[in-house]
Amino acid sequence: MSVLGIDAITYGVEDLSQCKQFMLDWGLSLVSDTPETAIFECLNGCQVQLAPAGLPSLPAAIEEGSTLREVVWGVENTTDLDAIASKISNDASFVDIQVDGARRIGCTDPNGLAVRFQVTRKKEIDVDCAAMNTWQSKPRMNAPAPVYNRATPIEVGHVVFFVADVNAVEAFYQEKFGFVSSDRYPDRGAFMRCSANGGHHDLFLLQLPNGKRGLNHVAFTVRDIHEVFGGGMHISRCGWETQIGPGRHPVSSAYFWYFKNPAGALIEYYADEDQLTAEWEPREFEPGPTVFAEWAIDGGLDGTTRRPKGAGRPQGKFLTEKN
Question: SUPFAM superfamilies given for it (predicted)?
Fold first, then answer.
């Protein structure tokens, strides 16, 4: 069986109107809007659903307030769906339902999160991405790198949760769904990808000393580092607050920018993560600030001045111009 990645996520939110505006600013397309739910899509069809936190049909929350209530993973075909169903059908939380005319199965993971699977609805897309010139390789000739005024995310690339028992949840995703561990903080964190060949992580599990359960962040893949910057500055101009970024993760090599998300916890733009195969050997790290970020800007950049917050607007036509 082959899990291809995240097909859809569902948030239960306390302020639906505010969260809808945030997702529009974030760069998602609104495809359905009712009093009970708003559904947005990324470029490849990956969906983000918003619903009132008190909606009875929502799966149970793993924490108070606005948060993620469900993650739907896509598989290649019905054979893969049947294979997963055979592994979880005896679970008391097993569900086998129809959603918009398609079969969706799932259960509740050891952390209390609703995990679902369906034959993927995402589509193949062709997007222009910046080529990076290095000393050895110069693929971008006679062409400037792009500058983005905002981001249009390609998909939900990964989700990150605080879990009460990282080893138990890691084993669950390995045994039931075939996920593969990429790197670890021993007994504290597990980076996992859906299959042997893929991006560094689709799921990250993080155990805190107090055993807190909840959402840490949802990450959206964008084209390249330039879209991370352009998207982040647009969100800053819209008035939303940076948590940290832009910056770069040394563990996955990805460039990032995190914002506070009214739908729950944090939300991230990221690009240029490591790509792994079955030959990859998981590494072990000791948690720490320099492991999280090789470098990062605390508080973000001001989208109008394009400088760190409080630095003021640049003067003159050239940086070197003096009064």
Answer: Glyoxalase/Bleomycin resistance protein/Dihydroxybiphenyl dioxygenase (SSF54593)
